[in-house]
Amino acid sequence: xxEGATIIGxxxxxxxxxxxxxxxxxxxxxxxxxxxxxxxxxxxxVTTASHQGSLSFATYHNAxxxxxxxxxxLRIDSRQEAQxxxxxxxxxxxxxxxxxxxxxxxxxxxxxxxxxxxALMEAWxxxxxxxxxxxxxxxxxGTMIVAGDxxxxxxxxxxxxxxxxxxxxxAVIDQHFSQRGRIGRLLAAVAQNPQTLxxxxxxxxxxxxxxxxxxxxxxxxxxxxxxxxxKTTMNNASEAQPGEPLTLTHIVVHVLSRGYGLDxxxxxxxxxxx
Length: 274
Hints:
Layout: E1 11-14, H1 25-37, E2 43-46, H2 53-65, E3 71-74, H3 79-82, H4 85-89, E4 96-99, H5 104-111, H6 115-125, E5 129-133, H7 135-138, E6 143-148, E7 159-163, E8 171-174, H8 183-192, E9 197-201, E10 205-210, E11 215-220, E12 223-228, E13 252-257, E14 260-263, E15 268-271
Parallel strand pairs: 1-5, 2-3, 2-4, 4-5, 8-9
Antiparallel strand pairs: 1-10, 6-7, 9-12, 10-11, 11-14, 12-13, 14-15
């Protein structure tokens, strides 16, 4: 969280493969939040994660126009571009920012620590809506999952991790969660970082995180699985050899669907609406 922030914008963290033209309620929710923040400004679409940025932008350009929301591309493909004053100034002309899918390590390696990254954090601290899908979801956490074997038993070194963009410091996020059977690698990530929340988000599902209100809300057709390892009593992550299975006891797991959420202060599930 940005120091001294008072009106931090919402994070819309999407598990990937969101519906774009049939019943696109997640994109509609992003459009609504952006319109509430700045009704006359377009949405910026960042395609850094994708090697097919033009195609990715065209898809979301058409999708968001269904809701009367104009978008403009922010194609940043190098750290040199991310350091340009012009690139950072584009954020002042946006109602929100949306990060497309692709490779989350490409987002952090190109944008992390640059002038654009600092401008993003500053704009977010003033209420900018920040949304992202797939790789654009994973990069939001403080510690980010880069890769891991989805079919592997929770084991030491089962996941490769790196520094994320730090929008939600107290979480580690995984996407395409149920569809790709990623519970093992999320457990392994939490074992290595038990103070953080492990958050696994299904496809066509979003976790809307309001850090000002200390609340996570589930949106969409699937579930968000939350792994809380803070009160774990046995954890052999520091003792196990690479590839050796992990032991985790008294770990707390919540499976949350639409209409439910999480109190982020108490780490307790809540009913958000009926």
